[in-house]
Amino acid sequence: MKAVLHILGLMVRDQRTAMIRGAALSVLVLLMGAALLGLSGWFITAAAAAGMAGAGRVFDVFRPSAMVRFLALGRTAARYGERLLTHDATLRALTSLRVRLLRGFAAQPWEALQTLRAAQVLNRITADVDALDGISLRLTLPLMAGVITHLTVMVVIGWLVDWWLAVILTAIFLVGAALVLVLGIRAATDPSRQAEEQAQILRSATVDLIQARRDLVVYGQLPCHLDQLTQTQVRRNDHLRQLDRIERRAGVSLSLTAGIAVAFAMTFGGLLAQSGLITPAAAAISVFAALALFETLIPLRRALSDTGRIVQAARRVTAVLPGRIPDDPAGPVPMGPLRLTGVTFRRAATAQPILSDFSLTVAAGETVALTGPSGVGKSTLLQIAAGLIAPDAGQVMVGDCPLPGLSQRGLRGVLTYVPQRAALVQGSIAENLRLADPKATAKQMRQALIACQLWHVVEPRGGLDLLLGPGGSGLSGGEGRRLVLARALLRCPAILLLDEPTEGVDSATAIRVMQGMRTHLPQTAILLAAHRPEERAAADREIHLTRS
Amino acid sequence: MHMQTGKTALANVLSAGQAGIRTGAVLGLFASLIWFAQAALIATLLAGLLAGDLPVSPLFLGGGYLGLAGLRALIASSAEKKLFNAAERVVTETRRRLWVQETRRADAVQGGPGAIAALAQEKLDALIPYLTRYAPAQMRVRVIPLLILTIAFWHSWAVGLVLLMAGPLIPVFMALVGWAAQQASERQMVEIGQLNDLLVDRLAALSDIRLLDATQPAIAGFENASHALRHRTMAVLRIAFLSSTVLELFSAIGVAMVAVWVGFALLGEVSWGTWGSPVTPWAGIYLLLLAPEFFQPLRDLAAAWHDRAGALAVAQELAQREQGAGQVILGTGAVQPRLVGSAEIAMTDLSVLRNGQNLRYPDITLPAGATVAVTGPSGAGKTTLLRLLAGLERPATGQISVAGQILTDDTADGWRAGLGWMPQQPHFLNQTLAQNIGFGQVPEADILKRAGLGSVLATLPQGLNTVLGETGAGLSGGEARRAMLARAMQAHPLVLLADEPTSDLDAETAETVMQGMLELAATGCTLIVATHDPALIARMAYRIDLPGAGGEL
Questions:
Q1: Rounded to an integer, what distance in angstroms lies between the CA atom of residue B102 and that of residue A461?
Q2: How far apart are CA A115 and CA A513, in angstroms?
Q3: Which of residues 124-143 of A touch B (CB under 8 A)?
Q4: Which of A196, A286, B364, B383 has the fewest C-beta atoms under 10 angstroms from its C-beta?
Q5: Is the Cα torsion angle A378, A483, B429, B330 positive or negative in sign?
Q6: Count of CB atoms within 10 A of residue A543's CB?
Q7: Is CATH 1.20.1560.10 what the domain over B2-323 is classified as, yes or no?
Q8: What is the end-to-end Cα distance of chain A in Å, rounded?
C-alpha cells in the first residue's frame, strides 16, 4: 500500500488541478444522482398526498419539477466532464511516469544495461504502468467520492427525514462496503498477483518463442514449447477463475448491502410514517435515495479485482523508479591522444587479472589493432578505454584529462565506442543515423554510408528513407554492421574504439570499409579489437594480447 | 464490406463460447425481471402509507424486498459465472491458435514480436468484457423495454408515449456512435502495438543509444509517441463518453418527464393521458420506479457496443494475421523419427523471391558427408538457402530432395530430426544454458568439451544452470557461438547447417568452432556453412558461390 500511496503522490503532484477538479465532479455526480431520485420520489408521493387531500392547487409544482429537470441535465454534464478530466489527467500522469522509468533505466550502469532483457523491461514498463491507471480511476477517486457522498446524504436525510434512519442507513452502506473491500482484497491479493505474474511470463515467453521459432522448429521443440505456454495459460486461467469467483461473491455482497439498505429504509421509514412521525413523502425520500446510492458501490467490485494487480505493479515500479537522476552536463570536451597507463583489471570471480599493467597511447590519425585469442580481454580493454568500466588500477586519459574527471556526455563528445553487438533501431536509415547526430544533413549521412560501402546497397532500395524493421531487420548481418559503423562516423569522434568492426562483411568490402573510415576521419585515433587480416592490415601497428 | 469482414471474423472467434454465452444471457434476463416484483413492493408500501391502508406491516414488505434482492443477486452471479467461463474458453483457444500460427511463419513476423505479445495478451483479454456483456445486454434489450412499455401503456398512454418516443432514438444514435468508436478504437489498437514495439526496440538498443549520447532525443521521441497514444486514447474515450452522455441524457429526460407527468396527474393538474380513470398513487410510483429500467438495457447495450467495437478491431487484426500468414514452415516442428536413408541432398530448379527479385540457386546434388561452403556477397541468399534446406521456407520454384524423398510437409519433420542448426544471431531462450543446449536432455560432458565450452562454464556463476539473456548476454560472441555448436552436436546430426559460424570470432576461437564442426564431419555428418571466412572455406571440400542479387548463374 505504501508503494501505491507513493505513486498516487507522484500522480497527484503531476496533475494536481485536474485531479482535484475531477474528484469534485465525481462527488457532484453521485450527489446529484441521489438528489434526483430522492426528489422525484418525494415529489410524486407528496403530489399524491396533496391530490388526495384536495390541496393540488396550493402545491408548488414548479420548483420541484424544475429542480428534477436541472438535476437530470446537470448530472449528465457533470458525468461527462468528470470522465474526461480524470482520464486525461491519469493518462498524462502515466506518460510522465513511463518517461521517468525509461530515463531511470537509461541511467543504469553499462553492465546492468547489457543484461537487461528487453522483454522483461517491456513487461515492466507497459503492463505495470498501464495497471497503475487504476490507482486514481478505480481506487482513490471512487472511494473518496463514495464516502463524501454518503456522509453528505446522511446529513441531508437526517435533516429532512430522521436522524436515526439517516445514520443507520449510512452505516449499512459504509460497513457493508468496507467489509466487502477488506475481505475481498485479502482474498484477491494472492490469485491476482499470481495471475499477473503468469501473464508476464506468458508475454515474455511469447516474445521468446517468436524470436527463437526457427531454432525450435529445427530441433523439433516447437510443440513442446507451445505446450509449456499452454500450461502456463491453464495455471493463469485457474487464478483468473478464482478471482472471478471472489469478484462475483463481492458482487452478491454489494447487491445484498444495497438490498438491506433499501429494505431498512422501507421498514424503518414505513414504521415512522405509519406512526405519523414523518410524512409518507419523507419516507419516499429515504427509499429512493437508498436506491440511488447503490451507484456508489458499483466501482468497488472492479476496484477489488484490480487491487492485487495494482499493488504489485506499484511495488515493482517504485522499486525501479529513480529518485533523482543526476544531471549530466555536456561538460568541456578534452583534446589529445588516448592514453592508457598501468591498467589492471580483474573479473570479480577470478583472482587472476585479465589485464595487468597495460599501457598504450593512440595518437591522432593513428590506427592501432588489438589482437589475441577470444577472452583475452580485448573487448574489456576497449570498454575500459571507453570509460564504461573502471580499471582496478591504472588510468585512462584523453590528452591530460583522466576519464573519471569527465562527464559521460563530455566523454561521448570526444570518444565513440562501437561494441561487438551494436544494435540498430526500427525506423528509416536516416533515423538510425540521426541517433548519432540529430542535425546530420542528408549529404553528411550519404558520405558516411559511402565510406562504409553501404550507399550502393541502400540507394536502389530507397536510400536514407529505407525503412528497417525491429532491431534493424531488413538488412543482412554485414549490411547492418556497416550501418553501425556509418553511424559511428557521424559522431566525428577524436577517438574511435571499434570491436571487430567488419564482422559478417565479405573480405573485399571489409578492406574498403576500413579504408573508407580512415579517409572519412583522417585525424581520429582509432583503436580496434581485430582478428581478421583485413582489419589488421588497416592498422599502423598491432598489439598482441596474450593470457597473463 | 469492412464491417462485414469484422463481423464474420468476430463470429469465427466466438464460435467456441456460443452455448455458454446464451445460457448466461438467459439467466441474466431472469435476474433483471425480479426488479418488477421489487418495485411493486416499494409502490405498495408508499401507496399504502399515503392511503393509510397498508395491508401488511412495512416489516414484511421490507423483508420481501430483501429476499427478492438476494435471489436476484444469486441468479445474476450464476449468469456471470456461465458468461465468464464461456469467454475464457474463447480467449484461451484463440490465443493458442495465434501462437501456433505465428510460430509456424516462414517469413518475418508482421510488426515484430512485441505486437504479437500485445495481441496475444492484453488485446485478447479485451475480448472478455465484450463476451460477458454484449449478448446479455442484447437479450435484455429485446425483452425488458417492451415489457415496461406494455405496463406503461396499460396504466397511462402518456407515460407509454414518452417512453416510446425516447426509446427508439437510442439505438439510432448508438449505431452512429458505435461506428465512429470502432474506427477510433482500431486506430488506437494499432498504436498500442506500435508503441510497445517502439519501446522494446528502443530498450534493446538502450546501451547503444547511450554510447551515441542520444538518450535525450530517444527519450523525447518515446515521450512524443506516448503523447500521441494518449491523444488517440482520449479520442476513443471522448466518443465513448459523449455517446454514453447522450444516452444518459435521453434516459434522464425520459425519467424526468415521467416523474413530472405522474406528479401533475396525481395532483389532479392534468386530466389527460390515462384511459379514463385517473392514475393511482401505486401506479404512479411503480411507473417512476420502472422508467429508469426502461432505458437501462439500452444503455448497457450502448456500453457493450464499445466493447464490441474493440472486439471487432481485435477480431479483424486476428483475421488479417491469419490471411497474411503467407508462407508457413514445412511440417509442424515436432519431434519425428528420422528419415530413413543416406542424407543426400539434391536441389533442382530452386528459386525464391526476395525483395521482389528472383534469386535462383544452382542445381546441385550433395552426397552424404559432403562439406560445403556457401559463399557470395551479403544479400546473395546464403541464409535463405540454409532455411530452404531446413524446411523453414518454401521455394518459389523447384524442389529439394533429401534422403531420396522430396522435402514436403510430410517429410520435413523427419528430415529436421537429423539436422543441426547454427543461426547467425544466437538467440537464447529465457531458460538455463543446459535447457538451451539440451532442450530437456542433460548436455553430454564430452560434447561440451568438444564445443570448447568447458572453460566458459567455469566462469559462469551457476555453470550450466545460468539463465541467459535473450541474445546471450553474459556470454561473449565466441562463447555464444560455441553454445550453439554444442546444441547442434547434442542433436547428433546427419547434416549441420551453420550460418556464419565463425563470424565475431578471433582466429583461436574460430579454430575451436571449426574443429568441432570438422569432428562432426569426420563422423559422416554433412556440413553446409554459409560463410565469408577464407579459413573456413578452405577447409570445406565443396564451394557453392552465389552471385548476388539479380545475378544469373
A1: 27
A2: 30
A3: 125-127, 130
A4: B364
A5: negative
A6: 16
A7: yes
A8: 54
- A348's CB contacts (< 8 A; 6+ apart) are none
The x, y and z cell numbers of residue A76, run together, are 449528465
DSSP string spanning B286-335?
HHHHHHHHHHHHHHHHHHHHHHHHHHHHHHHHHHHHHHT---B-SS-SB-
Alpha helices in B393-506 (DSSP H): 409-416, 433-438, 445-450, 454-459, 477-490
Q: Which residues pair with A361 in a beta bridge?
A: A339
For residue A424, what are the CA distances in angstroms to A294, A470, B114, B216? Answer: 55, 8, 16, 17
Q: Does A217 touch chain B (CB under 8 A)?
A: yes
Domain B345-545: state its class: alpha beta
Domains of chain A: 2-320 (1.20.1560.10), 338-544 (3.40.50.300)
Measured distance CA(A129)–CA(A94) in Å, rounded = 7
Contact B113 A210 (CB under 8 A): yes
Q: Grid coordinates standing for A381?
A: 580493454
**CA separation for the pair A223, B279 (Å, rounded):** 71
Answer whether B62 sits within 8 Å of A125, measured CB to CB: no
All 3 cell numbers of residue A221?
A: 521443440
Please give the C-alpha separations between residue B199 and each of A470, A528, B193, in angstroms, as whole numbers.
Answer: 10, 31, 10
Q: Kindly list the distances between the CA atom of residue B553 and the CA atoms of A463, B380, B426, in Å, as whole numbers in the listed order.
A: 28, 12, 31
Chain B residue with the nearest C-alpha to that of A245: B81
Question: What is the spatial distance between Cα A530 and Cα A511, in angstroms, rounded to a whole number?
Answer: 13
* Cβ–Cβ gap A50/B41 under 8 Å: no
Amino acid at B314: V
DSSP labels for A58-92?
TS--HHHHHHHHHHHHHHHHHHHHHHHHHHHHHHH
pLDDT of residue B482: 87
Check if the beta carbon of residue B184 is closer than 8 Å to that of residue B243. no
Cell of A442: 542528408
Residue of B378, B470, B515, B546 to mutate for A, most A C-beta atoms under 10 A: B378
CB-based burial label for A98 (10 Å; 0-12, 13-18, 19+): buried
Whether the ipTM is more than 0.90: the answer is: no
10-residue block means of pLDDT along chain A (548 residues)?
A: 88 89 93 92 90 78 87 91 90 86 78 61 69 86 94 95 96 96 89 85 85 90 91 93 93 96 96 93 94 92 83 84 66 79 76 79 92 80 88 87 78 87 85 90 94 92 86 81 94 92 86 94 92 88 82
Q: What is the Cα A506 distance to its own chain's centre? A: 41
Q: Give the span between the Cα atoms of B164 and A12, in whole angstroms.
A: 46
Flag if A113 and B210 touch (Cβ within 8 Å). Answer: yes
Nearest to B104 by CA among B359, B351, B391, B320: B391
User: Considering only CB atoms, which chain B residues are within 8 Å of A418?
Assistant: 211
| CB within 8 Å: B203 and A419 | no
Q: Positive or negative, the Cα torsion across B102, B108, B113, B119?
A: negative
In the numeric block, the cell 464491417 is attached to B3
Residue A142 C-alpha, separation from nearest chain B C-alpha, in angstroms = 17
Distance CA A402, CA A394 (A): 10
- Which stretches of A415-495 are DSSP H helices? 429-434, 442-451, 455-458, 477-489
Q: How far apart are CA B97 and CA B93, in angstroms?
A: 6
Cβ A130–B122 below 8 Å, yes or no? yes
B247: Cβ contacts below 8 Å, ≥ 6 apart: B170, B173, B174, B295, B298, B299, B302
Query: What is this structure's pTM?
Result: 0.79
**What residue spans define the domains of chain B?**
2-323, 345-545
